Amino acid sequence: MRILVLGFTGYLGGHVVEHLRALPGARVFGGGRSPDAVINCAGSTDGDPVTLAEVNSRGPAVLCAALREAAPSARLVHLGSAAEYGPGTPDTRVTEASATRPVTLYCATKLAGTVTVTTSGLDAAVLRVGNPVGPGAPPTGLPGRIAGLLRAAGPDPDAVIRLGDLSACRDFVDVRDVARAAVLAATSPGPLPHVLNIGGGRAVPVRELVRTLARTAGFRGRIEEDGGGSARSGAVSWQCSDIAAAGDSLDWRPSYALEESLAALWAATSVRPEGGRAP
User: Fold this and answer.
1) Domains and CATH numbers, the chain
2) Distances (CA, A) of 186 to 97, 124, 155, 237
3) First-residue to last-residue Cα distance in the chain
4) Which residues are catalytic?
5) Residues 266/144, Cβ–Cβ less than 8 Å
6) CA distances for 128 relative to 116, 132, 146, 240, angstroms
7) How many helices (H) and strands (E) does the chain have?
8) How confident is the model over 77-120, as pLDDT tens digits?
9) pLDDT tens digits, residue range 50-71?
10) Burial label, 47 (beta-carbon count in 10 A; 0-12, 13-18, 19+)
11) Which residues contact 26 (CB under 8 A, 6 or more apart)?
Protein backbone atom coordinates (compact mmCIF):
# COMPACT_ATOMS: atom_id res chain seq x y z
CA MET A 1 0.00 0.00 0.00
CA ARG A 2 1.41 3.37 -1.05
CA ILE A 3 0.75 6.12 1.49
CA LEU A 4 1.59 9.78 0.95
CA VAL A 5 2.08 11.86 4.12
CA LEU A 6 1.94 15.63 3.89
CA GLY A 7 3.50 17.57 6.74
CA PHE A 8 5.66 14.56 7.61
CA THR A 9 8.41 16.74 9.12
CA GLY A 10 6.05 18.23 11.71
CA TYR A 11 5.01 17.13 15.20
CA LEU A 12 1.98 15.04 14.24
CA GLY A 13 3.29 14.01 10.83
CA GLY A 14 6.54 12.66 12.23
CA HIS A 15 4.69 10.32 14.57
CA VAL A 16 2.32 9.25 11.78
CA VAL A 17 5.25 8.28 9.55
CA GLU A 18 6.87 6.35 12.42
CA HIS A 19 3.69 4.30 12.88
CA LEU A 20 3.26 3.74 9.15
CA ARG A 21 6.79 2.43 8.72
CA ALA A 22 6.01 -0.29 11.26
CA LEU A 23 3.04 -1.42 9.17
CA PRO A 24 3.76 -4.53 7.07
CA GLY A 25 3.51 -3.83 3.35
CA ALA A 26 3.25 -0.06 3.69
CA ARG A 27 5.38 2.18 1.47
CA VAL A 28 5.53 5.73 2.82
CA PHE A 29 6.26 8.72 0.59
CA GLY A 30 6.65 12.44 1.19
CA GLY A 31 5.56 13.39 -2.31
CA GLY A 32 5.76 12.66 -5.99
CA ARG A 33 3.99 9.29 -6.07
CA SER A 34 0.54 8.05 -7.04
CA PRO A 35 -0.88 6.97 -3.67
CA ASP A 36 -3.47 4.56 -2.36
CA ALA A 37 -4.00 6.84 0.63
CA VAL A 38 -3.02 10.35 1.68
CA ILE A 39 -2.66 11.57 5.27
CA ASN A 40 -2.62 15.35 5.48
CA CYS A 41 -0.84 16.46 8.65
CA ALA A 42 0.06 19.89 7.29
CA GLY A 43 -1.34 22.81 9.25
CA SER A 44 -0.48 25.99 11.10
CA THR A 45 -1.53 26.95 14.63
CA ASP A 46 0.04 30.41 14.63
CA GLY A 47 0.80 33.12 12.13
CA ASP A 48 -0.76 36.07 10.38
CA PRO A 49 -4.19 35.77 8.72
CA VAL A 50 -2.70 35.11 5.28
CA THR A 51 -0.53 32.26 6.58
CA LEU A 52 -3.39 30.63 8.48
CA ALA A 53 -5.73 30.88 5.49
CA GLU A 54 -3.10 29.65 3.06
CA VAL A 55 -2.09 26.58 5.07
CA ASN A 56 -5.31 25.58 6.83
CA SER A 57 -7.92 26.56 4.24
CA ARG A 58 -6.37 26.81 0.79
CA GLY A 59 -3.98 23.89 1.36
CA PRO A 60 -6.73 21.26 1.74
CA ALA A 61 -8.59 22.75 -1.23
CA VAL A 62 -5.53 22.42 -3.47
CA LEU A 63 -4.93 18.90 -2.19
CA CYS A 64 -8.50 17.81 -2.93
CA ALA A 65 -8.32 19.27 -6.42
CA ALA A 66 -5.06 17.44 -7.08
CA LEU A 67 -6.44 14.13 -5.84
CA ARG A 68 -9.57 14.43 -7.97
CA GLU A 69 -7.29 14.85 -10.96
CA ALA A 70 -4.51 12.37 -10.20
CA ALA A 71 -5.80 9.80 -7.67
CA PRO A 72 -9.58 10.04 -7.35
CA SER A 73 -9.89 6.65 -5.65
CA ALA A 74 -7.29 7.35 -2.93
CA ARG A 75 -8.40 7.54 0.71
CA LEU A 76 -7.77 11.00 2.17
CA VAL A 77 -7.31 11.39 5.92
CA HIS A 78 -7.13 15.03 7.00
CA LEU A 79 -6.14 16.12 10.50
CA GLY A 80 -8.57 18.75 11.72
CA SER A 81 -8.93 20.25 15.18
CA ALA A 82 -11.42 19.99 18.03
CA ALA A 83 -11.07 23.77 18.24
CA GLU A 84 -13.45 23.90 15.27
CA TYR A 85 -16.31 23.26 17.70
CA GLY A 86 -15.58 26.44 19.61
CA PRO A 87 -16.48 26.93 23.29
CA GLY A 88 -17.76 23.82 24.99
CA THR A 89 -20.40 23.44 27.66
CA PRO A 90 -19.03 22.16 30.99
CA ASP A 91 -19.73 18.47 31.61
CA THR A 92 -20.94 17.96 28.02
CA ARG A 93 -18.87 16.07 25.46
CA VAL A 94 -19.14 17.29 21.87
CA THR A 95 -20.05 14.73 19.23
CA GLU A 96 -19.34 14.91 15.52
CA ALA A 97 -22.91 16.20 15.05
CA SER A 98 -22.39 19.14 17.42
CA ALA A 99 -22.52 22.65 16.01
CA THR A 100 -19.25 24.30 15.02
CA ARG A 101 -18.73 27.79 16.43
CA PRO A 102 -15.17 28.91 15.68
CA VAL A 103 -14.15 31.93 17.75
CA THR A 104 -10.66 32.66 16.38
CA LEU A 105 -9.12 32.85 12.93
CA TYR A 106 -7.23 29.62 13.58
CA CYS A 107 -10.47 27.78 14.40
CA ALA A 108 -12.23 29.29 11.39
CA THR A 109 -9.49 28.35 8.94
CA LYS A 110 -9.33 24.80 10.28
CA LEU A 111 -13.10 24.50 9.90
CA ALA A 112 -12.87 25.77 6.33
CA GLY A 113 -10.36 23.01 5.58
CA THR A 114 -12.68 20.43 7.10
CA VAL A 115 -15.63 21.61 5.02
CA THR A 116 -13.52 21.47 1.88
CA VAL A 117 -12.49 17.87 2.58
CA THR A 118 -15.89 16.58 3.63
CA THR A 119 -17.64 18.09 0.58
CA SER A 120 -14.93 17.10 -1.92
CA GLY A 121 -16.64 13.95 -3.14
CA LEU A 122 -13.48 11.99 -2.35
CA ASP A 123 -13.16 8.97 -0.08
CA ALA A 124 -12.21 11.25 2.79
CA ALA A 125 -12.34 11.47 6.57
CA VAL A 126 -11.39 14.31 8.91
CA LEU A 127 -9.97 13.48 12.33
CA ARG A 128 -10.84 16.30 14.72
CA VAL A 129 -7.89 16.09 17.09
CA GLY A 130 -7.96 17.35 20.68
CA ASN A 131 -4.87 18.87 22.30
CA PRO A 132 -1.93 16.62 21.35
CA VAL A 133 0.71 15.96 23.98
CA GLY A 134 3.69 13.65 24.18
CA PRO A 135 7.26 13.26 22.93
CA GLY A 136 8.48 15.95 20.56
CA ALA A 137 5.81 18.51 21.55
CA PRO A 138 6.76 21.84 19.93
CA PRO A 139 7.55 24.86 22.12
CA THR A 140 4.71 26.78 20.45
CA GLY A 141 2.13 24.68 22.32
CA LEU A 142 1.49 24.74 26.06
CA PRO A 143 2.95 21.31 27.02
CA GLY A 144 6.14 21.87 25.04
CA ARG A 145 6.52 25.42 26.32
CA ILE A 146 6.06 24.33 29.94
CA ALA A 147 8.59 21.53 29.50
CA GLY A 148 11.10 24.02 28.14
CA LEU A 149 10.56 26.40 31.07
CA LEU A 150 10.93 23.57 33.58
CA ARG A 151 14.09 22.35 31.88
CA ALA A 152 15.55 25.87 32.02
CA ALA A 153 14.58 26.33 35.67
CA GLY A 154 16.19 23.10 36.81
CA PRO A 155 16.04 22.05 40.48
CA ASP A 156 16.47 25.59 41.87
CA PRO A 157 14.01 25.92 44.80
CA ASP A 158 13.89 29.69 44.27
CA ALA A 159 12.89 29.44 40.61
CA VAL A 160 9.59 31.07 39.63
CA ILE A 161 7.68 30.24 36.46
CA ARG A 162 4.98 32.77 35.57
CA LEU A 163 2.15 31.61 33.36
CA GLY A 164 -1.21 32.81 32.19
CA ASP A 165 -4.59 31.66 33.45
CA LEU A 166 -4.57 27.87 33.91
CA SER A 167 -8.24 27.43 34.81
CA ALA A 168 -9.38 26.13 31.39
CA CYS A 169 -10.14 22.46 30.80
CA ARG A 170 -8.84 20.69 27.72
CA ASP A 171 -9.11 17.25 26.11
CA PHE A 172 -5.50 16.05 25.85
CA VAL A 173 -4.56 13.09 23.65
CA ASP A 174 -1.18 11.46 23.21
CA VAL A 175 0.42 12.25 19.86
CA ARG A 176 1.17 8.54 19.40
CA ASP A 177 -2.52 7.75 19.77
CA VAL A 178 -3.27 10.40 17.15
CA ALA A 179 -0.78 8.77 14.81
CA ARG A 180 -2.35 5.36 15.37
CA ALA A 181 -5.81 6.77 14.60
CA ALA A 182 -4.52 8.30 11.36
CA VAL A 183 -2.99 4.98 10.29
CA LEU A 184 -6.19 3.09 11.10
CA ALA A 185 -8.25 5.61 9.14
CA ALA A 186 -5.93 5.41 6.13
CA THR A 187 -5.93 1.62 6.04
CA SER A 188 -9.54 0.87 7.02
CA PRO A 189 -11.12 -1.17 4.19
CA GLY A 190 -14.63 0.18 4.50
CA PRO A 191 -16.12 3.68 4.17
CA LEU A 192 -15.69 6.00 7.13
CA PRO A 193 -17.78 8.82 8.60
CA HIS A 194 -16.76 12.21 7.22
CA VAL A 195 -15.68 13.41 10.69
CA LEU A 196 -14.31 11.49 13.68
CA ASN A 197 -13.27 12.93 17.05
CA ILE A 198 -9.84 11.86 18.29
CA GLY A 199 -9.20 12.84 21.89
CA GLY A 200 -8.61 11.61 25.38
CA GLY A 201 -12.33 11.63 26.12
CA ARG A 202 -12.09 13.65 29.33
CA ALA A 203 -11.71 17.29 30.26
CA VAL A 204 -8.46 17.92 32.15
CA PRO A 205 -7.78 21.19 33.96
CA VAL A 206 -4.73 22.80 32.38
CA ARG A 207 -3.52 23.47 35.91
CA GLU A 208 -3.47 19.70 36.49
CA LEU A 209 -1.33 19.15 33.40
CA VAL A 210 1.16 21.83 34.50
CA ARG A 211 1.43 20.47 38.04
CA THR A 212 1.84 16.89 36.82
CA LEU A 213 4.59 17.90 34.43
CA ALA A 214 6.29 19.90 37.19
CA ARG A 215 6.26 16.83 39.48
CA THR A 216 7.62 14.70 36.66
CA ALA A 217 10.44 17.21 36.18
CA GLY A 218 11.25 17.34 39.90
CA PHE A 219 10.59 21.09 39.88
CA ARG A 220 11.04 22.61 43.36
CA GLY A 221 10.23 26.24 42.66
CA ARG A 222 6.94 28.15 42.34
CA ILE A 223 4.42 28.41 39.51
CA GLU A 224 2.46 31.66 39.42
CA GLU A 225 -0.53 32.60 37.26
CA ASP A 226 -0.86 36.19 36.07
CA GLY A 227 -4.30 35.78 34.52
CA GLY A 228 -3.12 36.36 30.95
CA GLY A 229 -2.82 33.86 28.12
CA SER A 230 -3.15 33.43 24.38
CA ALA A 231 -6.30 34.58 22.62
CA ARG A 232 -6.56 31.23 20.82
CA SER A 233 -6.65 29.29 24.08
CA GLY A 234 -8.48 31.82 26.23
CA ALA A 235 -11.50 31.93 23.92
CA VAL A 236 -12.38 28.33 24.80
CA SER A 237 -12.52 27.61 28.55
CA TRP A 238 -13.85 24.03 28.43
CA GLN A 239 -13.39 21.32 25.85
CA CYS A 240 -14.07 17.59 25.76
CA SER A 241 -14.80 15.29 22.82
CA ASP A 242 -17.06 12.29 22.60
CA ILE A 243 -14.81 9.64 21.01
CA ALA A 244 -17.33 6.80 20.76
CA ALA A 245 -17.59 7.05 16.96
CA ALA A 246 -13.84 6.48 16.54
CA GLY A 247 -14.19 3.36 18.67
CA ASP A 248 -17.04 2.09 16.52
CA SER A 249 -15.48 2.95 13.13
CA LEU A 250 -11.78 2.33 13.76
CA ASP A 251 -11.74 0.21 16.92
CA TRP A 252 -9.62 3.05 18.29
CA ARG A 253 -9.33 4.20 21.87
CA PRO A 254 -6.58 6.19 23.57
CA SER A 255 -3.93 3.89 25.01
CA TYR A 256 -1.74 6.37 26.93
CA ALA A 257 -2.68 7.99 30.24
CA LEU A 258 -1.83 11.68 30.56
CA GLU A 259 0.89 10.88 33.09
CA GLU A 260 2.57 8.59 30.54
CA SER A 261 2.35 11.24 27.84
CA LEU A 262 3.94 13.86 30.07
CA ALA A 263 6.68 11.49 31.19
CA ALA A 264 7.51 10.78 27.52
CA LEU A 265 7.47 14.51 26.75
CA TRP A 266 9.84 15.24 29.62
CA ALA A 267 12.17 12.40 28.68
CA ALA A 268 12.30 13.68 25.10
CA THR A 269 13.34 17.18 26.19
CA SER A 270 16.42 15.71 27.89
CA VAL A 271 17.76 14.38 24.57
CA ARG A 272 16.80 17.34 22.41
CA PRO A 273 19.88 18.68 20.60
CA GLU A 274 20.74 22.33 21.15
CA GLY A 275 18.50 24.41 18.93
CA GLY A 276 16.76 21.35 17.47
CA ARG A 277 13.81 19.03 17.84
CA ALA A 278 13.61 15.98 19.99
CA PRO A 279 13.67 12.82 17.88
Assistant:
1) 2-269 (3.40.50.720)
2) 22, 9, 44, 32
3) 26
4) 106
5) no
6) 14, 11, 24, 12
7) 10, 12
8) 999 999 999 998 998 999 999 999 999 999 999 999 999 999 99
9) 999 999 999 999 999 999 999 9
10) middle
11) 1, 3, 20, 187
